[in-house]
Amino acid sequence: MSEIFEYIPHPHAEKRKVAGPPTVAAAVAQVHGPGPIGRLNAKIGLKVTVVVGTMWCAYLFTLVALVSVPSAFKTGNSLIIIAWIAQTFLQLVLLPIIIVGQNVQAAAADARSQATYDDAAAVLEEAKQIQTHLAAQDAEIEKILSALASPKAV
Predict the structure, then answer these.
(1) Inside any domain, residue 21
(2) pLDDT of 114-138, one tens digit each?
(3) Quick check: is 19 in a domain?
(4) Which of 32, 108, 142, 149 could be stapled to 38 by a disulfide with Cβ–Cβ 3.0 to 4.6 Å?
(5) Within 10 Å of residue 58's Cβ, how many Cβ atoms?
(6) pTM higher than 0.70 for the full model?
């Protein structure tokens, strides 16, 4: 490379090469611990979330909640009716629906993160190409300067 410039790569670029992009395994270890119990807890939590976080589960929970609706309304007591709506129906049915929404948002966030990572990797490669181009230009400029400085050029 040229004597007028020394390229020093940013240390983060080398760390990223070694580490790669963030992974689910790293997140699991951070949340539940790296041991077997932490992995088991994460596996169980993920499985329950996957099962409960579906609209099919929301439909099933709606049916389960509707089993007790005749008894709640039969009492005629507004407190019991409101309690059924709040404690049985809303909590039971909204839980899977909220998880579905969070899963959709998480998928969109993952896609955005991947696009950002890909963009950053592309920009890094472009910067490397620019460095190569500049080094080639430096070499040509040095040839021109040498030719101008030599006695033959005078």
Answers:
(1) yes
(2) 899 889 889 988 998 998 899 899 8
(3) yes
(4) 32
(5) 19
(6) no
